[in-house]
Write a structure and sequence with these properties.
single chain, 126 residues, mainly alpha, 66% helix, elongated, DUF4179 domain-containing protein, signal
């Protein structure tokens, strides 16, 4: 049985991939409580902001960075992690929109629960 020593380039590439995945998950890892079964969302769903929302340039930069990594990264694992981060952010945005709608239009119990979720989200800053 013949084994070949791991090259320095392979170790460097693996460690860089691990760092990139960690950074992506840290940047796009906002959490929201699950309230219903998730609906499938497109991978590259564009977030529509209303005219009243201020533009967060840093967030826009990170979003573009994640999208570029998802499309052009050399390692498959890095591309997959970037796509997963985009899906997670899109799902969180959709869930937040649903909860806000439920807080306005739901029945008494649904409104109370939706308002609790919004309060927790605001408290946690997500």
């Amino acid at each position: 049985m013949r084994t070949t020593p791991t090259s320095a380039a392979t170790l460097r590439r693996r460690s860089i991939a691990a760092v990139i995945i960690t950074v992506l998950l840290a940047l796009v890892g906002g959490t929201t409580p699950a309230l219903a079964a998730p609906q499938p969302t497109p991978v590259l769903q564009q977030q529509q902001s209303s005219a009243n929302d201020p533009v967060d340039e840093e967030y826009e930069f990170y979003q573009q960075l994640v999208q570029d990594i998802a499309e052009h990264a050399e390692d498959v694992e890095v591309r997959d992690a970037a796509k997963a981060a985009e899906r997670k952010r899109a799902e969180a945005t959709e869930n937040r929109r649903k909860v806000e709608e439920w807080a306005r239009t739901g029945g008494p119990n649904v409104k109370v629960q939706a308002q609790r979720v919004e309060a927790v989200r605001k408290r946690d800053g997500s």
